[in-house]
């Protein structure tokens, strides 16, 4: 059995999910987290997950010859530099979504989010290309942590698509909830965008993956994106929200959007409709609908009804986890038996481990991450200009 030694960078929400997923990797390869570094909470995470080493900083981690893989779970603005440094140190890379972004220049006169979106597009693509080139040059894998691609319902949908043989006409997919509480997410200079980048990268990555999958099955090559039309808004800054503001929806956004929608046209003229917002109550929305010439598939990566629970009091369940982003546990709820499994996190790490050990590309690779960045920043240009953006013209 081959054991890959992992160093985790960051000790926040997604690090917790990744650390738990590593424990589930099985078969002929194993992933062992041997060290962690973070601005905050590193000691706490090391104790919780039995991690033997806490590095002073990222540089100390990538200098450790025992580390095979670096898992980058830090704010988006750090992704490109950390990925390039890891690749140059000969370490394989697991990078949380989005792969990178365009962060602009923040100044007292103009916040980064007011930077012309075409400038941000070129900055984002330069960052993405730096990552891909560093990995190629140093012969390391980029494992782009897009868990939706690995969700069991998506895997089942792909098997049905393969057997049915129909052509995908439309994809509708969404991630929405009541808002991130991470401080960095509120500022363009740190996050690289709002709901479209931070959450939209999930459904956009999924739509691109499905058309790539279909194209490889039918034509031996991916079906690429041709154009995008998009709109974005910050609904919590509207008068309607301010007049009727309640505590349940996050409203701390500085220069980033909290609502977005994108229409993608692929080169075969089929469509994908993408929704991503921070203004939805009732728990997280992770959905996928696929409409083909001979079938319709409805997939839900988040909610379930395998367990139903009722209580009149929000305090009844104590600290028992129910499901992500619900505002209260009072009333009827749907406790998730294994939320991380349903969203594909253990399967994602299993594929990454096997890809690195077997010297093959992972299912969710650096090129998928790069294409997601390309589509999202083209969508920001569309929203800013009010026009359709042809990717070939950028």
Automatic annotation (TrEMBL):
Residues 4-100 form the Gfo/Idh/MocA-like oxidoreductase N-terminal domain. InterPro entries: Gfo/Idh/MocA-like_OxRdtase_N, GFO_IDH_MocA-like_dom, NAD(P)-bd_dom_sf. Gene3D superfamilies: Dihydrodipicolinate Reductase, domain 2, NAD(P)-binding Rossmann-like Domain. This is Gfo/Idh/MocA family oxidoreductase. Keywords: Oxidoreductase. Coiled coil: none annotated. It comes from the Bacteria. Residues 160-294 form the GFO/IDH/MocA-like oxidoreductase domain. GO terms for molecular function: nucleotide binding; oxidoreductase activity. The keyword Lyase does not apply. Belongs to the Gfo/Idh/MocA family.
């Amino acid at each position: 059995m081959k054991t890959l030694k992992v160093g985790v960078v960051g000790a926040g929400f997604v690090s917790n999910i990744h650390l738990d997923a590593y424990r589930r990797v099985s078969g002929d390869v194993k992933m062992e987290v041997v060290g962690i570094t973070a601005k905050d909470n590193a000691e706490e995470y090391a104790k919780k997950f039995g991690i033997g080493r806490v590095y002073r900083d990222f540089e100390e981690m990538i200098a450790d010859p025992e580390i095979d893989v670096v898992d980058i779970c830090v704010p988006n603005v750090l992704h490109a530099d950390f990925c390039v440094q890891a690749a140059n140190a000969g370490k394989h890379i697991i990078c949380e979504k989005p792969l990178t972004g365009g962060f602009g220049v923040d100044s007292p006169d103009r916040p980064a989010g007011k930077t012309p979106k075409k400038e941000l597009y070129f900055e984002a693509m330069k960052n993405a290309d730096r990552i891909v080139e560093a990995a190629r040059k140093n012969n390391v894998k980029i494992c782009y942590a897009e868990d939706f691609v690995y969700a069991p319902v998506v895997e089942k949908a792909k098997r049905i698509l393969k057997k049915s043989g129909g052509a995908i006409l439309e994809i509708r997919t969404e991630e929405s909830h009541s808002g991130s509480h991470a401080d960095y997410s509120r500022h363009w200079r740190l996050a690289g965008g709002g709901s479209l980048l931070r959450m939209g990268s999930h459904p956009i990555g999924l739509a691109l993956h499905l058309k790539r999958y279909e194209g490889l099955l039918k034509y031996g090559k991916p079906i690429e994106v041709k154009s995008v039309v998009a709109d974005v808004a910050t609904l919590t800054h509207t008068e309607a929200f301010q007049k009727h503001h309640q505590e349940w929806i996050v409203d701390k956004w500085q220069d980033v959007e909290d609502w977005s929608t994108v229409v993608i046209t692929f080169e075969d003229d089929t469509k994908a409709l993408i929704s991503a917002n921070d203004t939805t109550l009732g728990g997280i929305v992770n959905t996928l609908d696929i409409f083909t010439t001979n079938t319709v598939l409805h997939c839900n990566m988040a909610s379930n009804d395998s367990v139903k629970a009722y209580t009149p009091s929000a305090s009844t369940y104590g600290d028992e986890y129910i499901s992500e982003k619900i505002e209260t546990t009072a009333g009827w709820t749907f406790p998730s038996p294994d939320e991380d499994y349903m969203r594909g996190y253990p399967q994602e790490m299993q594929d990454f481990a096997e890809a690195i050990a077997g010297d093959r590309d992972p299912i969710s690779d650096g090129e998928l991450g790069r294409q997601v960045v390309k589509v999202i920043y083209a969508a920001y240009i569309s929203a800013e200009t009010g026009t359709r953006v042809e990717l070939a013209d950028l």
